[in-house]
Amino acid sequence: QEVLELLREEITELQYNRYIKQLVYDVKKSTSDMAIFYAPNALVLNWIKNKYTEKITHLFEIKSGNKVNVKITLKNLVAQKGKKQKSDQKPQHSLLNPSHTFDNFMVGGSNQFAYAAVKSVSEAAGEVYNPLFIYGGVGLGKTHLMQSAGNVFLNHGKSVIYTSVEQFLNDFIRHVRNKTMPSFQEKYRKCDVLLIDDVQFLSNKEGIQEEFFHTFEALKGAGKQIILTADKHPKKIGGLEKRLQSRFEWGLVADIQPPELETKIAIIKKKCEINKVKLSNDIINYIATVIESNVREIEGILSKLHAYSQLMHIEIDLAFTKNVLRDQLQENRANLTLDTITNSVAKDLNIKPTEIRSKGRSRNLVYARRVSIYLCRELTHNTMPQLAQYFGMKDHTAISHTIKKINELMKNDEDFRVKIEELTNKITSVS
Ligand code: ADP
Ligand code: MG
């Protein structure tokens, strides 16, 4: 409390009241070299962690004369870790995030196959698909899905190990060094369920592949469930022993694709609900449209929006949202070119890209041209004269006229707006 009071003197009253005041110090679990604080939700947690951990650590040192490790976390995460430490023989599950559940996972066309596969494995461990291999791009929910199954198993009293390849490797090295390999093997071979994340990192690491192979064989032989994730199909992971690769494909290989617009909207709504953030539908649509596919990025934006609005005492409206997202968008779009945009529009409307930039006046072409101009203006930093030149128009007034027209349509024609949002979505997710 004294430390937080000290901090209060150094920051604004608003920041203190919005964030720091919500921290709860755990008197029981904290020790002379570890100070544990709880944040009420993930947004406050991220904000404080990024901005204040260093400061709090420093103030602790001033107050107590000790260098203290400051840990800020969500309450339920620590509770789970505490449990683990008491029953030491039980395999670890400390890294399972309790909010990674099936209920919190929004299902759409892009992920329903993987979802269904993980769900059925969670209902019949070891009996349906073993191993289950999930692959897909960054931030598409692989870890979330895998841990959802882990949480179900935990609730059924099964021993679950969740680990990344990196941790598995570190653990291995530590046991080799301490000459305690039998306990390493016992730990990984005695569990009921083994969840290994990001197995693409096994690539070109022969020693650990060998060890992993034997772990795999032992578990599989005993009918224990194994779930694996990677950023690509087993066949595409280079530097992987043939026998491992083929075993990864033994059960079921399921992919996760980037979410479609509706799924993104559902995810945003869910995250708002979980984190108690209120956003209007037009803002939700906007975020879903402009953010590509990475769901982790969407979460970052929600947290940024929330934090800014709290700090600056501003209602989150569309203009504010656009403002906050500007930097983010510029980064995402740095590599979008006029060609990629017109090509996508052409493909979508089934015409040739060269036709869009021709002088053709058929209805279809005019429509495609207008949409391309609008999207090029929205998604790149080209000036109106530059666009005029690209589209072969006399001068920038034709461009500005087109953009005005499209803006009007966007306002008055719901179907058209949806169409444009979908197109934007497509274009930004391929870049
Ligand atoms: P990956 O492991 O594929 O890189 P994660 O599982 O870590 O991705 O997901 C990134 C973030 O996005 C997580 O916070 C996760 O909860 C969230 N997320 C991803 N997909 C969904 C979804 N379909 N529904 C709800 N949240 C999702
Ligand atoms: Mg992951």
From TrEMBL:
Q: Where is the Chromosomal replication initiator DnaA C-terminal domain?
A: 337-406
Instruction: Say yes or no: keyword Acyltransferase present.
Output: no
Give positions of region: Domain I, interacts with DnaA modulators: 1-72
Q: Which residues bind ATP?
A: 139, 141-143
Specify the signal sequence span. none
| Chain ranges of the AAA+ ATPase domain | 128-254
Q: For this UniProt entry, what's an example GO CC term?
A: plasma membrane
Q: Which UniProt keywords apply?
A: ATP-binding, Cytoplasm, DNA replication, DNA-binding, Lipid-binding, Nucleotide-binding
**Location(s) in or outside the cell:** Cytoplasm
What is the superkingdom listed in this entry's lineage?
Bacteria
Nucleotide-binding as a keyword of this entry, yes or no, is yes
The family database entries (InterPro entries) matched by this protein are listed as: AAA+_ATPase, Chromosome_initiator_DnaA, Chromosome_initiator_DnaA-like, DnaA_C, DnaA_dom, DnaA_N_dom, DnaA_N_sf, P-loop_NTPase
Q: What residue spans carry the region label Domain IV, binds dsDNA?
A: 310-431
A Pfam family annotated for this UniProt entry: Bac_DnaA
State any GO BP term from the record. regulation of DNA replication
Q: Give the GO molecular function terms.
A: ATP binding; DNA replication origin binding; lipid binding
Instruction: Note what the entry says on domains.
Output: Domain I is involved in oligomerization and binding regulators, domain II is flexibile and of varying length in different bacteria, domain III forms the AAA+ region, while domain IV binds dsDNA.
Q: Would you identify the family this protein belongs to, as annotated?
A: Belongs to the DnaA family.
User: Which NCBIfam families does the entry mention?
Assistant: DnaA
**Role this protein plays:** Plays an essential role in the initiation and regulation of chromosomal replication. ATP-DnaA binds to the origin of replication (oriC) to initiate formation of the DNA replication initiation complex once per cell cycle. Binds the DnaA box (a 9 base pair repeat at the origin) and separates the double-stranded (ds)DNA. Forms a right-handed helical filament on oriC DNA; dsDNA binds to the exterior of the filament while single-stranded (ss)DNA is stabiized in the filament's interior.
Q: How does it assemble?
A: Oligomerizes as a right-handed, spiral filament on DNA at oriC.
Q: What is this protein called?
A: Chromosomal replication initiator protein DnaA
